[in-house]
């Protein structure tokens, strides 16, 4: 009887284990396959995002060519054909610009000067030059009469593109639309796809143009460049490790006419997938789609899942066979014991990880008013004896620093309104008056009526991180003060220079006054004249002090200021020192721009840049030393350009000039703080930026401030 009962129990246990094993194996098989597919999908999305980033970066790099030509154009009143070739060869011969197939200068020619222009180029090019356009059959014919023309003039590489010399690109309706758009936006604009003359397959290019204006804001013409799309994309991907996806690119600017542009596979047409991004490319919209190069990965997922399933089945059968021959209860107890050991080990690992991250979790059941903390939270709140400690939500609230309770309360109330998890950094004030910084995250479960019932969250001790941030801010303040002390020394030097001549004059008038006093017949008219002249000199000395004192007022309020006035005041303060060193100052401040900013900090930046330029010009030993300062608008920014004609910054240190404590004047008491101070003020206080260009002809710094 007992034997039958044992057999029946074993049978039920056997059947139960078999069914549970099969169910668990199926779930594990499904979970592994799903997880690996999800992981692969995430990898593909990451790879796709990286490729899109590389494409954007490469396009921007190529568009920089036109922006560079525009800056080159501004730096010279006239650019010869030879100078143009020498400058653009740097791009055409560079391996970094493989997508560039041609670059040209396209001047605007009014109809009244057309004949004169054609005669001029006929002499330069030594053939009968005419401005041309294409007829309906694609043949080049003399251009039809119109108000003005945009004729391709300078073009490189010349031998490869000489047929385009004299072609009026505005004679093509689509390209004229691109020219007008570029003129309206005043930035790089590209055409739809074009078929390059030398291409035979499904490879395309596009034409990019950038308008150039004179100082009177009159359009002079355009710089244009022809780019090959395949070369641009392939260059972007040349160092990429992400080669596991297929890419398609289409121009979707015109929604009714989607143009295929590129693919890295055999499908040479638009392929719409669920992985896609739309990017803005110089006035046009490109759609980029992607799909995994599957087969191998999918087979690997399936094989691994099948292998795990097979392994689980083998384990189950092995356990059943063992149970058949030995004591079922002992094996079961051992298995449970092992599971408990594994669970305890996992808990230990979790505890260790939380200790390393100083991360604790909590849960609050609002219905039962029951709060549960993980062990690490007791450590964060420095509670030694948690057995005697009475855990409550009020205790947690009371530990929040009084100055931060309102912010935490507002974050929680807003979270209850929008029903989205919230995250906030705040301080804790513990019993020993010790302050800690914590990061708190919280999410709430609501019932069907929208009532909160369960709160879950984490608390992480971030005190070390916040203290490091505070220390970093203090260091930046120290650096800024050091830089201002250096500038203050320059100010004192300039005051001394400006006072020298008035003090000499005062000495002379003092001598004259004493002479009049010792004269038997005092001429009071002369005495009054001397007194009046001395009053004027004393007033000038006092005004000099006021000028320099106002220059360093520590005013950090945003005010509406005139950049033209700020620049002129900065130059005036430094003018005597520039004159003393035979440095000619040129100001191009035709347009005044008003912005909301901090006047004293802009003056401090200008003074530092002028001082650096002065030192560089003195060191260059050039006869004609020139410092030019320009003010103009670019997009939505005010741009201040400070340019010298010194010897430039050596290329090997150009990437270090904004580093703290790095100076090119170490043997001349350079602190290495000036450029770092400028960048710090622009980035952190003025919401601006600084960039520069430098070669053997000099250095130009460009400060951009939002209008």
SSE layout and pairing:
Layout: H1 2-74, H2 81-92, E1 100-110, H3 114-125, E2 132-134, E3 140-142, E4 148-150, E5 155-156, H4 158-161, H5 173-185, E6 189-190, E7 205-213, E8 219-228, H6 229-236, E9 245-251, E10 259-263, E11 275-281, E12 284-292, H7 296-325, H8 328-357, E13 359-365, E14 370-373, H9 375-380, H10 393-399, H11 405-418, E15 422-429, E16 435-446, E17 452-461, H12 463-517, H13 524-551, E18 559-562, H14 563-580, E19 583-588, E20 594-597, H15 599-620, E21 625-634, E22 637-644, H16 674-684, E23 689-695, E24 698-706
Parallel strand pairs: 19-21
Antiparallel strand pairs: 1-4, 1-5, 1-8, 2-3, 6-7, 7-8, 9-10, 9-12, 11-12, 13-14, 13-17, 15-16, 16-17, 18-20, 21-22, 22-24, 23-24
CATH superfamily of the largest domain: CHASE domain
What Rg do the Cα atoms give?
38 Å
Q: What percentage of amino acids are in beta strands?
A: 15-25%
- Mean pLDDT equals 81
- Total of domains: 4
Major beta sheet summary: 6 strands, antiparallel
The count of β-strands is 24
Shape: flat
The secondary-structure class comes to alpha+beta
Q: In percent, how helical is the residue content? A: 40-55%
Through-space gap between termini: 96 Å
What's the CATH class label of the largest domain? Alpha Beta
| Low-confidence sequence ranges | 295-302, 666-670
Number of alpha- plus pi-helical segments: 16
CATH fold topology of the largest domain? Beta-Lactamase
Task: Give me the CATH architecture of the largest domain, please.
Answer: 2-Layer Sandwich
């Amino acid at each position: 009887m007992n034997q039958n009962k044992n057999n029946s129990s074993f049978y039920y246990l056997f059947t139960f284990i078999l069914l549970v094993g099969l169910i668990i194996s199926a779930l594990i098989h499904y979970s592994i396959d799903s997880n690996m597919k999800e992981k692969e999908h995430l990898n593909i999305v990451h790879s796709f995002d990286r490729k899109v980033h590389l494409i954007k970066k490469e396009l921007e790099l190529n568009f920089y060519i036109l922006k560079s030509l525009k800056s080159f154009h501004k730096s010279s009143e006239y650019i010869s054909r030879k100078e143009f070739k020498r400058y653009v060869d740097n791009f055409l011969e560079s391996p970094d610009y493989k997508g560039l197939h041609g670059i040209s200068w396209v001047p605007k020619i009014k109809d009244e000067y057309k004949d004169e222009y054609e005669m001029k180029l006929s002499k330069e090019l030594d053939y009968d030059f005419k401005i041309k356009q294409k007829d309906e059959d694609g043949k080049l014919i003399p251009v039809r009469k119109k108000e003005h023309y945009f004729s391709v003039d300078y073009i490189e590489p010349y031998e490869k593109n000489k047929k385009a010399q004299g072609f009026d690109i505005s004679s093509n309706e689509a390209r004229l639309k691109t020219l007008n758009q570029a003129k309206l936006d005043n930035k790089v604009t590209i055409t739809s796809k074009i078929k390059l003359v030398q291409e035979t397959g499904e490879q395309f290019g596009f034409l990019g143009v950038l308008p150039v204006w004179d100082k009177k804001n009159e359009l002079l013409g355009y710089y244009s460049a022809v780019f090959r799309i395949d070369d641009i994309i392939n260059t972007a991907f040349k160092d990429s490790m992400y080669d596991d996806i297929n890419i398609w690119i289409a121009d979707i600017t015109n929604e009714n006419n989607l143009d295929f542009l590129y693919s890295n596979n055999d499908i040479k047409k638009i392929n719409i997938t669920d992985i896609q991004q739309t990017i803005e490319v110089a006035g046009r919209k490109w759609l980029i789609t992607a799909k995994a190069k599957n087969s191998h990965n999918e087979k690997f997922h399936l094989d691994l899942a099948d292998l795990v399933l097979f392994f689980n089945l083998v384990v189950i059968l092995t356990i059943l066979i063992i149970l058949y021959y030995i004591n079922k209860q002992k094996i079961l107890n051992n298995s449970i014991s092992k599971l408990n050991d594994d669970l305890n080990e996992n808990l230990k690992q979790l505890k260790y990880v939380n200790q390393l991250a100083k991360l604790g979790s909590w849960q609050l059941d609002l219905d039962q008013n029951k709060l549960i903390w993980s062990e690490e939270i007791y450590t964060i709140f420095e509670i030694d004896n948690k057995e005697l400690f009475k855990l409550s939500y009020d205790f947690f609230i009371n530990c929040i620093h009084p100055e931060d309770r309102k912010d935490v309360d507002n974050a929680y109330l807003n979270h209850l309104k929008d029903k989205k998890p919230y995250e906030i950094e705040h301080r804790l004030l513990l019993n020993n008056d010790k302050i800690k910084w914590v990061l708190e995250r919280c999410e709430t479960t609501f019932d069907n009526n929208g009532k909160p019932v369960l709160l879950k969250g984490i608390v992480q001790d971030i005190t070390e991180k916040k203290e490091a941030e505070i220390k970093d801010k203090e260091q930046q303040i120290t650096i800024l003060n050091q830089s201002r002390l250096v500038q203050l020394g320059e100010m004192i030097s300039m005051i001394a220079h400006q006072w020298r001549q008035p003090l000499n004059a005062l000495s002379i008038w003092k001598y004259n006054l004493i002479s009049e006093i010792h004269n038997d017949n005092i001429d009071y008219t002369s005495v009054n004249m001397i007194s009046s002249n001395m009053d004027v000199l004393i007033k000038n000395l006092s005004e000099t002090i006021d000028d320099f004192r106002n220059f360093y007022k520590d005013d950090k309020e945003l005010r509406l200021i005139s950049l033209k006035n700020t620049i002129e005041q900065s130059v005036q303060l430094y003018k005597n020192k520039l004159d003393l060193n035979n440095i000619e100052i040129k100001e191009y401040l035709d347009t005044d721009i008003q912005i909301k900013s901090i006047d004293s900090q802009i003056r401090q930046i200008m003074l530092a840049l002028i001082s650096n330029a002065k030192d560089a010009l003195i060191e260059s030993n050039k006869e004609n030393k020139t410092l030019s300062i320009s003010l103009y608008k670019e997009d939505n920014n005010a741009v201040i350009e400070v340019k010298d004609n010194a010897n430039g910054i050596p290329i090997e240190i150009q990437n270090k000039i904004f580093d703290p404590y790095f100076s090119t004047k170490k043997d001349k008491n350079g602190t290495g703080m000036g450029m770092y101070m400028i960048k710090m003020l622009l980035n952190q206080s003025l919401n601006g930026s600084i960039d520069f260009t430098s070669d053997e002809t000099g250095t130009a710094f460009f400060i951009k401030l939002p209008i």
